[in-house]
Amino acid sequence: MPSLSEFIAANRRAVQLDPIELSEPVPLEELHTPALTIDLDIFESNLARMQNHLSSHGLGLRAHTKMHKCPVIAHKQVAQGALGVCAAKVSEAEIMADAGVADILVTSPLASEEKYVRFADLAAAHAGAKVVVDSTGAASRLDELARERGIRIGVFIDIDPGMGRTGIEAGEPVLELARHCLDNCQHLRFCGLQMYAGNCMHTEGFENRKAKYEKVMSKGIATRELFENAGIDIPAFSGGGTGTYDIEPGLGLMTELQAGSYAFMDIEYRDIGSSSAERFEDFPVSLFLLCTAISQPQSRLITVDAGFKSLASDKMAPQFRDVEGVIFHWGGDEHGIVQLDNPSRMLNLGDKLPLVTPHCDPTANLHDFYYPYRDGMVTEIWPISARGCSH
Amino acid sequence: MPSLSEFIAANRRAVQLDPIELSEPVPLEELHTPALTIDLDIFESNLARMQNHLSSHGLGLRAHTKMHKCPVIAHKQVAQGALGVCAAKVSEAEIMADAGVADILVTSPLASEEKYVRFADLAAAHAGAKVVVDSTGAASRLDELARERGIRIGVFIDIDPGMGRTGIEAGEPVLELARHCLDNCQHLRFCGLQMYAGNCMHTEGFENRKAKYEKVMSKGIATRELFENAGIDIPAFSGGGTGTYDIEPGLGLMTELQAGSYAFMDIEYRDIGSSSAERFEDFPVSLFLLCTAISQPQSRLITVDAGFKSLASDKMAPQFRDVEGVIFHWGGDEHGIVQLDNPSRMLNLGDKLPLVTPHCDPTANLHDFYYPYRDGMVTEIWPISARGCSH
Questions:
Q1: What contacts B207, CB < 8 A, 6 or more positions away?
Q2: Would an 8 Å CB–CB cutoff place A324 in contact with chain B?
Q3: Are the C-beta atoms of residues A122 and A133 closer than 8 Å to each other?
Q4: Alpha-carbon distance B157 to B85, whole Å?
Q5: Shortest CA distance to B37 belongs to which of A2, A6, A91, A391?
Q6: Does B292 contact A at CB distance below 8 Å?
Q7: E strands, A333-388, where?
Q8: C-alpha to C-alpha distance for A50 and A246, rounded to whole angstroms
Q9: Helix, strand, or coil here: A216?
Q10: Taking residues B331-339, what's their average pLDDT?
Q11: ipTM
Q12: Distances (CA, A) of B242 to B9, B78, B92, B102
């Protein structure tokens, strides 16, 4: 019989981290659906494009693994040039550490004893694990746990960009918390500031987005000035995402970008528009949920085997990649009901159909494996190792 | 290197099926959040109440495991008197079979070769596995696969209650499909009819719900008459759910109820009203997502560590069980932002707070384990073994 912590450790050890190579290639049409597939040509081109863009502007990439939850992909991002990754939760960071990803920042603050201890244990085993703090209480407790373990814990101070989600108020409070870390917490290492404006990422229209983001970030710039005047170095400024990747160079605040969605993309991001087009397709969609038509109770409807349990439903409905003139209606937990208004092709029972996902992050979190393919063939399977790591 | 089917089989074998007993009891407050907890007193009373109600009216319970995805719970339902269970997908049925649940009906039709084969293999290994059919094509192919395996496959004919989701049109088409099964498919066993009116389960107000359900089900009654006139026995009539549990006895069509949510309940069901009260609390809520307050960027807001990745978002926002005068706003994939209008108690960083879930089925599907408790203590953990089994 395990204790609670032994139970948690055993489950962590049981996670599959490596790609599974198949003994023979499998055509997409033979996958058991719903199956989360990745078009490798588009995916690889997205990884390269983001890294090249950032490198050419002297910015680092801290890829957000909360999006894909997959160490195989994290390693590809690092191999491509990313300086490290983000994780939203401690349990997610553990998986990335177990898989050998060196530099990992937990981007959400901790506030309970078992999480402080769990993170300190991770940092003791994995020197590259860092975490954000947004209160003196968290900083002090992490400092104490680091002292007990004979280590130094790297921390970023999280700044609220006005969303009211996480982070300390911009300006003087940030400086005070930094001073607390530098002066009173000998076992913390001040790594920099984080300011992630999630409320700007999906603003429609490039000019709107840019204007809104610059306004929100002006408080970040003012905070940086406070640090400069106080003679306190800011080793790194972390934040931004796919939606601001081409705004950051001009703004000049971030030193590293926390982008995630660019690798897969989804309807939500595609529809915000880019600097040059109505659709944001600088990074085309590479992730598709393959589903199957399983029932046709009425002549103008056909039902597919994907609902709330295989597609995140916090945003709009999914769309078919290859069929126009149809509307996907949510049909509950396991089904989608497709209204055949003026379909661009015949749909028959048994057809396998790729869907563009509404929101890639929580959709990936519903699945255990990715099925990457090239030329319609799947040769290996990638475990979504940190799926369900919400704690 | 495995083939695709060896890979699927290996993952199935790796699933944990049994409860994990802890070496010492853990207080709820020490759980790592978000954690899906079950109030055992309420849960057990819900199981007993539904079974007693149905038994006293001569109805069977075919508990739907798509809701809890947990063999531990399925076994409790059967021990309590359920005649069997439902599963929404073949992969879900496999897990229940592996755990030793005898009678399992897959309630969604199959329409692709790899799923026909997968189900036939399951039926060959597990005699109690049955599936619905809603087309002659599916019936004929399953018959052929049963013949090849030297078995008979039990089938229910799925009838569309007018939702347009799955099922064949009520009336003559059902009779024709039954004749096809009986006359041309020697390796199928005709087990009965299924007619699940998911579109009636959440109709608000008992009288509204009853009237709507009776109207929809009149086509089921007419179909039964067609069978009676044709001299074809209907061994069982399966359908209905938590929302119609007290309507079925008067209607007299169903012989077995496909209820699932009654064990856990959620906001969606609670708010439909019962025959005697504004809230449907014949089965009180027993499922709670425990979350932690982790940040307070602004004085009138506090942020908890639960968002789209730990709470299904297809319905309304969650509610706190023990705190009034606050509003939960979705704060993205990992967060909820709690607006402190007139809170009935102080909320502090680190507080552990139980949330009532909006929709229990897809919420359970986001988690790996249940933490059942009594008197505030967790003594064992139940694996959500079929979580992610959407294929």
A1: none
A2: no
A3: no
A4: 17
A5: A391
A6: yes
A7: 336-340, 352-356, 369-373, 377-383
A8: 10
A9: helix
A10: 97
A11: 0.97
A12: 34, 17, 20, 22
Asked if A167's CB is within 8 angstroms of B337's CB, the reply is no
Distance from CA of A75 to the nearest CA of B (A): 22
Annotate B118-150 with b (16+ C-beta within 10 A) or e (fewer). Answer: bbbbbbbebebbbbbbbbeebbbbbbebbbebe
Name the residue with tokens 């209160």.
Answer: A135
Neighbouring residues of A60: CB distance < 8 A, sequence distance ≥ 6: A54, A82, A83, A236, A255, A256, A257
A277 token code pair: 């087009």
pLDDT in tens, B207-261: 999 999 999 999 999 999 999 999 999 999 999 999 999 999 999 999 999 999 9
Angle at the Cα of A279 (from A273 to A285), degrees rounded to 5? 115
Rounded CA-CA distance A91/A114 in Å is: 12
Say which of B34, B332, B349 has its CB closest to residue A391: B34
The C-alpha atoms of residue A207 and residue A217 are separated, in whole angstroms, by 15
Segments of chain A with pLDDT less than 70: none
Cβ(A83)–Cβ(A62) under 8 Å?
yes
Q: Are A326 and A349 in contact (CB under 8 A)?
A: no
Test A390 with B4 for CB contact under 8 angstroms.
Answer: no
For A207-262, how does the pLDDT look when each residue is reduced to its tens digit (9 = 90+)? 999 999 999 999 999 999 999 999 999 999 999 999 999 999 999 999 999 999 99
Instruction: Read off φ and ψ for residue B196, nearest 5 degrees.
Output: -110, 115
β-pairing verdict for A84-87 and B168-169: unpaired
